[in-house]
Amino acid sequence: MSTWDSRRRPDPGPPAAPADLAGMFRNLCRSSPWKWQSLRFEYWDQAFESAPTPGAPFVRAWLRRPGALRLESPESLVLHSTTGINDSRDDFYVSATRKSWLLPPHLVTPVYDDAGLVRRRPEAAYGEPGFGNGRFAAALDPVELAGNAPVPIEFPGSNALDIRKVRHGDHEGRPALEAVVAPNAAYRPIDPAAPLCLPGISRLRVDVGTGVCVASTSLEAGTEEYGHWIRILAVDEYMLDDLFLAQSMNLTDVRRHISWDIPA
Questions:
Q1: Which of 51, 65, 200, 249 lies 20 to 30 Å from 164, alpha-carbon distance?
Q2: What's this model's pTM, rounded to 2 decimal places?
């Protein structure tokens, strides 16, 4: 019987055999909501062979689930910052929509496999903040590459992707799973205008520690630049609300001496 850690994940089992890597890749693509709550990273909206080229445009990002996002240019210019992250909903909204009653993913328990990855996702309030196009949000929770649960093996082509080859690798110094894939008819991207996989063959890389799709590259002629690249800088850092607000809340720095004027 497996033991469980404080986040209700089973202890990882032995390393997966090559025949199990395709299933491991799919389960890893389902696991992001339960692997981290905040992420600091750099994002390039284009594909690279081994590393971003100097001068290629990118953004620096701070993301805290659920829904808090700050983006800066390389020159530290704020490009986007969420506001109203603590706004409440009125009575009519809460009573009129079923979705408003769904819990955040980290508050519900999925079905895990023996390696501590998510085999079946429960119903929850999924969704990552986006910027530019849907590929940004899809990369942070790449469930579109696997679907919410395994499909029956008696229905060929029911998986979102046909996984041709998968191997352990490295991405920016972090362990990753890399797969060469082709989308099937069952592939349903979150944003049809900006899928993680174009028709044909693509190479995908998913970070083992976070479940984030850190790189995608089309391997078809003429679309080699289609894809993205993410450099993860920190996971689960503490992030104050002030970081995500357009106007500073002017919180008091308790390290500074506060002088008091006392009338004579």
A1: 51
A2: 0.82
